[in-house]
Amino acid sequence: MAINASYFGSGATLSGKKIHDGVIISDTATSFYTLGIKPGNTFAIYNSSYSAQDILNDGCINSFAGFIPLVENGSSVRQSVKDLYSAGSEKHSRQVIAQYSNKDILILTVDGR
């Protein structure tokens, strides 16, 4: 299985803080959050002030860049999804990553085109 684990800037350049199996792949500035995954599937959310090295030092062995939290600890952290995108933006595929209380991970991909 493969999913987007980041987003791409101009020229299809990998953007954001990306860690794969404990190795930093990308550490570029971004306004998005990073979703870090520690051993045992423990999630951690990092705002844009954290570097990939900070995230790795905090124990994350994998990360997803271009992440925007919608729900955290069962409560909404955004007023609406419309807050995230300007009107008229293209409809691209989107992915939702959720975690059950037993630490199982659910990844849902929706084709937006």
UniProtKB/TrEMBL annotation:
Span of domain Phosphodiester glycosidase: 2-113
Domain of life assignment: Bacteria
Pfam families: NAGPA (PF09992)
InterPro entries, alphabetized: NAGPA (IPR018711)
Name of the protein this chain belongs to: Uncharacterized protein DUF2233
Organism: Paraliobacillus ryukyuensis
Taxonomic lineage of the native organism: Bacteria, Bacillati, Bacillota, Bacilli, Bacillales
